[in-house]
Specification:
345 residues; alpha/beta; Arc Repressor Mutant, subunit A; 3 domains; three-stranded antiparallel sheet; 18 helices; globular; methyltransferase activity; methyltransferase; transferase; Methyltransferase
Length: 345
């Protein structure tokens, strides 16, 4: 039987295009940017009120709310009034998972980069750089508001699968853990709470770690964490029992990943372990979210999502020996996260 990567039934590509076009995402962006969910609850509110609260044109806002209601985020009521649905609650600022901030992050400066997607296709370089005149992380450093949005989104949106993977990992024998590129320490704090005898180090750029002490104090682990401001391209804190790279390497090309892994390799004592938590593009046919995430990483950052074999080859090229894949599951509708353990070869 010949191999195929196509779904078993013929898709309606025209319907897929129209229903999944950029205007769907941008409609969500309007709701997120205006904070509509924060202004709505179970009781209906008029579009006139919402327009006054958000600084929007009343008629235009009504037309967007009408679509949001059709999408299930809002309930439509007579008299051009709307209330928030249970599903729409995900767009609230205080909703678990930080979806609102993720929508805002991907629909602003990142969305504009897609207008030059053919630059990526023809050159292999991120379109973001061409549109904004700077690489993504340089752009964040020069734009404090965008950098704050990035930190809020990354602090929550990408961590749930990683924490779930680490909950299945045996941390026996690990006294000191370094979270490389660990942001403000959210993931590290979760691991430390699961392992009361452990201490940790969170390492990231100074623009990120500035908020780490307050965040770690909120998590109740400030006395157990050292905060280090440094680029992982330059150095990694040495001498720990284990090093975590969670949702880091997919941001970078293979060449850059080898540089990062090289710094980790230099920092690791002979007994130490490397733990990589990242998405995995599943084998087999059918459209999967990780494939679309791969396009996003390529256009914005020049990074990539990788298959299990890609991860094995990358680690091998960096001087590591993969010892086990602790967790890898394919739910079919979400990014697949694997937790891969490796040691120095």
């Amino acid at each position: 039987m010949p191999a195929t990567s196509a779904p078993s039934r013929n898709p309606d590509l025209m319907q897929l295009y129209h229903m999944g076009g950029p205007w769907i995402g941008q409609t969500m962006y309007v709701a997120a940017e205006l904070g509509l969910a924060d202004h709505l609850g179970p009781e209906p509110r008029s579009v006139a009120e919402l327009a006054a609260l958000t600084g929007a044109d009343e008629d235009v806002l009504y037309r967007f709310c009408r679509v949001l209601a059709a999408m299930g985020a809002l309930h439509a009521h007579p008299g051009r009034r709307f209330s928030l649905t249970e599903a729409g609650g995900i767009l609230r600022s205080d909703a678990p998972g930080g979806f609102r901030y993720g929508v805002m992050l991907q629909s602003g400066a990142c969305f504009r980069a897609w207008t030059e997607v053919m630059h990526t296709v023809r050159t292999g370089r991120p379109a973001f750089d061409k549109v904004h005149g700077a690489a993504y992380y340089d752009y964040l450093e020069a734009n404090p508001a965008e950098n704050e949005l990035f930190n809020r989104a990354m602090g929550v949106t990408s961590l749930a699968p990683a924490v779930a993977a680490l909950e299945r990992y045996d941390f026996s024998g690990i006294g000191r853990l370094v979270d490389v590129g660990g942001g403000v320490g959210t993931l590290l704090a979760a691991v430390l709470r699961m392992n009361p005898g452990m201490t940790g180090v969170v390492q990231d750029l100074a623009t990120v770690t500035a908020e780490a002490p307050d965040h770690l104090a909120e998590q109740g682990v400030e006395g157990r964490v050292e905060v280090v401001s440094a680029s992982f391209f330059d150095s990694v804190v040495p001498g720990a029992d284990a090093y975590v790279l969670s949702r880091v390497l997919h941001n970078w090309s293979d060449e850059d990943c080898l540089r990062i892994l090289g710094r980790v390799h230099e920092a690791m004592p002979p007994h130490a372990r490397l733990i990589v938590v990242d998405s995995v593009v599943p084998d087999g046919g059918g459209l999967h979210p990780s494939m679309l995430a791969d396009l996003f990483m390529m256009v914005i950052l020049g990074g990539k999502e990788r298959t299990e074999q890609d991860w094995r080859e990358l680690l091998d090229a960096a001087g590591f020996r993969m010892t086990r894949a602790v967790q890898a599951e394919n739910t079919g509708d979400t990014l697949v996260h694997a937790l891969v353990e490796a040691v120095r070869r």
